[in-house]
Design brief:
With 178 residues, this protein is mostly helical. It has 2 domains: 10-41; 73-176, Arc Repressor Mutant, subunit A. The protein is built from 9 helices and 2 strands; from the N terminus they run H-H-H-H-H-H-H-H-E-E-H. The chain has helices at 11-30, 32-38, 59-68, 72-77, 80-87, 92-102, 109-116, 122-137, 162-176, and strands spanning 143-144, 158-159. It has a two-stranded antiparallel sheet. It is flat.
Length: 178
C-alpha cells in the first residue's frame, strides 16, 4: 500500500499531490500499459522469449524475483521474534533497542528527542520510518498512551507495548552475543 504525505499549507505540494492522485486513478481505470503510454513514457520490456517447460528462467527474471522478496501476507504471518530478527538488519533497530531499554514512561516525540540526546525532530523522522515497517510487518512499536496525556505543546505521549519491549531486548541480546 502506498501512502501520500501532503503539506496542506503548501499550495505547490497540494497541486503535486492532486496530480499524483489523478495519475494513480488513471492507471487504476486504464491499466498500467495504457496510462504509461498516455503519460508519454514508452513501455519497454526488452525482447520477449517464450519460456519452455523445464528451462531455467532468465537471469534477469531470477534477479527480479529475488528483489521482490516475500509477500506482505507472508511477512505479517511471521511470529514476532522472526519479524524483529528481520527488522534487526535495518539501521532503525538500534534506535528501537535504545527506546526499549532506556524509556519506561510515556513520552512525546520531542521529549524522546531530548531524553535520548537526538537532534530536534529526529524521532519524528524515525517514527515515519517505523510506520513503514509497522505497516509492512503488521506491528506497532509505539502506541499513543491514553493515560499519558499531552505534553506542553499538545503532542501525544507514546509508550512501547511491554511484549514488544521484551522481544526487542531479547533479539538485541541475541545479536550482541553470537
Amino acid at each position: 500500500m502506498t501512502y501520500l504525505m501532503v503539506n496542506l499549507n503548501d499550495p505547490a505540494d497540494c497541486r503535486e499531490a492532486i496530480q499524483r492522485l489523478r495519475n494513480a486513478l488513471q492507471r487504476a481505470e486504464c491499466g498500467p500499459a495504457k496510462s504509461r503510454q498516455q503519460d508519454g513514457e514508452r513501455e519497454h520490456d526488452g525482447p520477449q522469449r517464450p519460456e519452455r517447460e523445464g528451462q531455467r528462467p532468465s537471469r534477469s527474471r531470477r534477479r527480479s524475483e529475488l528483489r521482490s522478496g516475500p509477500s506482505l501476507e507472508d511477512l505479517q504471518d511471521l511470529p514476532l521474534p522472526k519479524k524483529l530478527h528481520r527488522i534487526a538488519q535495518r539501521g532503525v533497530f538500534r534506535h528501537l533497542n535504545r527506546i526499549a531499554s532506556e524509556v519506561e514512561t510515556p513520552m512525546s516525540l520531542p521529549e524522546l528527542d531530548r531524553h535520548l540526546g537526538f537532534a530536534p525532530n529526529k524521532m519524528r523522522s524515525l517514527k515515519a520510518i517505523m510506520a513503514k515497517l509497522e505497516n509492512r510487518f503488521g506491528l506497532r512499536f509505539l502506541v499513543a498512551d491514553p493515560e499519558g496525556g499531552l505534553d506542553e505543546n499538545g503532542n501525544p505521549r507514546y509508550t512501547m507495548p511491554p511484549r514488544m519491549r521484551n522481544q526487542i531486548r531479547i533479539v538485541a541480546a541475541k545479536i550482541a552475543t553470537p
